[in-house]
Amino acid sequence: xxxxxxxxxxxxxxxxxxxxxxxxxxxxxxxxxxxxxxxxxxxxxxxxxxxxxxxxxxxxxxxxxxxxxxxxxxxxxxxxxxxxxxxxxxxxxxxxxxxxxxxxxxxxxxxxxxxxxxxxxxxxxxxxxxxxxxxxxxxxxxxxxxxxxxxxxx
Length: 154
What we know:
This protein is mainly α and about 150 residues long. It has one domain (about 5-154). The chain has eight helices and no strands. α3 (about 35-50) packs antiparallel against α8 (about 125-154), α5 (about 70-90) crosses α6 (about 95-100) and α6 packs parallel to α8. The radius of gyration is 16 Å and the shape is globular.
């Protein structure tokens, strides 16, 4: 396997991880020499991979977790976090979900957007478009920042 393929695979897995998501995967891939636009597309697509699963299964998993001694606290924490983030959704609805995902800061992103959408009871058909557009916008922001940093150091 070539170094480029290995880097692309690592980038894809990094983009799917909670917390780091596209915000870390895209600059990481560019710093390792992957083409910036290829990296952008790769990160956007793989950042979206967990979203349908979160939307489909999170409420069931949280309900199960709440019924256990071990995970009840984690389930409550996740729900509280989603409700705190849902203020943006309630204020702007679908635009709010887009904004929540699009701002590439800690505590935002596709995972948080899917968490909020799931806890709010949004159907996948309504939740996926603003989450996808938010991921794409966050990717453009991170691509611009990454290319700016690379050009400073070159």
